Amino acid sequence: MKVLVIGDSCQDMFRYGTCDRLSPEAPVPVFLPTRTTENGGMAINVMENLMALGIDCDIITNVGKPVKTRYVDEVSNQILLRVDVNDDIMRVMSSTMFEIKYENYDAVVISDYNKGYLEVDDIIDITNHHPLVFMDTKKKIGDWAKGVEFMKLNEKEFNENWNKGFEFQGDLVTTRGKDGALLNFHEVFPIEDEQEVRDLSGAGDTFLATLVADYIKNGDIRNAIKYANRCASWVVSQKGVVTVNLEMI
Question: For the segment 83-92, what is each residue's pLDDT rounded down to a tens digit?
Fold first, then answer.
């Protein structure tokens, strides 16, 4: 199996430290850094999760990466502050889109954080060229999304961005955190093995990647949702952004 991932990516940085006192200058904690971890985020995280599941992947993404730095209390794992730098991303070049050899891929995965890399016309172009497109998007949903076969939104994105007059012809998967997922508005898939939540960062990317991986291997969206629930549930029990670990699932 071979998959193309296309969308915005960033660099995720986690600066862990201790907060044992308040500043005498203002009522804020004094942060003493102890360690730093870094990894590729957003579309890169989707790709890395797919690769961890044995899927051959190519990626088309932005070169200049926004950096998301989270300052995290080591003891409680509480995020104290997130600082985003270089958050604007240039649109994908039309020549890059023109050169995609869609026939080489079993599926295309759109990881659209709506940072500017993909416009609506780019997504329409993708769905016009490939029959099996999975998409996770932060955009307002409209007729431009009709060619998508499987759309994944979290509950907040669905409530804010779904157009009630839009008649989607594919399958919609809505993730609802500890309440699992919904398929096409009504079919409920609960979390079978709930884990203690330590960090939600990257969980949506893991869900999307594992949904895609299981579906293209087995062709059953319901089993794919159950598998994605299980993988995302494990990921949120870890610190920071981590890729799925088959030995732990």
Answer: 999 888 999 9
